[in-house]
Design a protein that fits this description.
Layout (H helix, E strand, L loop, with lengths): L1 H23 L5 H15 L15 H17 L2 H15 L7 H26 L1
Keywords: Membrane, Transmembrane, Transmembrane helix
InterPro entries: DUF1232
Membrane topology: Multi-pass membrane protein
């Protein structure tokens, strides 16, 4: 079972790299580029929308949301583009993944605002 999960994770990583290159390809339709950019940016982001330290929910995005997003993105991209990007993805997987610090910063900002709002609400409740 552990090997099966490991293979699934490797496949997911490969699909993210395929989407990364499909986004950059001029033959990809604009709507697929937009959606793919969002999925890839989230996947490469150093910070999750739901932090992993939150029990059960922390892994929800990694196990459910991200694969669904990848699946939809792969369906939007023409097959010939995906075939070309698969070759590039194999090469890229050997070198490591890029990071999207802009999206990471946005996610940190959103979480910071939520925490600040929560602290203000608690402070006003006790005063």
């Amino acid at each position: 079972m552990f090997e099966k999960m490991k293979d699934w994770a490797k496949s997911l990583k490969r699909q993210i790299f395929i989407l990364y290159y499909a986004y950059k390809d001029a033959r990809t339709p604009w709507y697929a580029k937009f959606y793919t950019a969002c999925v890839v940016a989230y996947a490469f982001s150093p910070i999750d929308l739901i932090p992993d330290f939150i029990p059960i929910l922390g892994y929800l995005d990694d196990v459910i949301l991200l694969p669904i997003g990848i699946w939809f993105a792969l369906k939007m991209i023409p097959r010939n583009v995906l075939t070309d990007c698969e070759v590039k993805a194999e090469e890229k997987m050997k070198n490591g993944k890029p990071k999207n610090w802009i999206v990471g910063s946005i996610i940190v900002s959103v979480w910071s605002l939520i925490i600040i709002w929560f602290v203000i609400k608690i402070y006003s409740f006790f005063n």
